[in-house]
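User: Just a sanity check before I run the rest of the batch. Below are the structure tokens for the first item. I only need the designed sequence back.
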């Protein structure tokens, strides 16, 4: 609990989730959970190649030509 009280307000929702658990994690478990939480936003960001593909797509502007 002392460690969790020292965590910044950026982790407010995270701390609420930990407190909602049936059993409070011990220090070693907390370290592992915090590392996972730190890595989670990085895994959600698009990779550079995905970003490049999204930037190259341009919406079609104009009318379809009649053949």
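Assistant: Here's the designed sequence for the first item:
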């Amino acid at each position: 609990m002392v460690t969790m009280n020292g965590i910044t307000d950026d982790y407010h929702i995270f701390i609420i989730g930990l407190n909602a658990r049936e059993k409070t994690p011990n220090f070693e478990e907390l370290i592992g959970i915090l590392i996972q939480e730190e890595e989670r936003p990085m895994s959600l960001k698009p990779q550079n190649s995905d970003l490049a593909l999204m930037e190259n797509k341009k919406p079609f502007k104009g009318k379809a030509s009649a053949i």
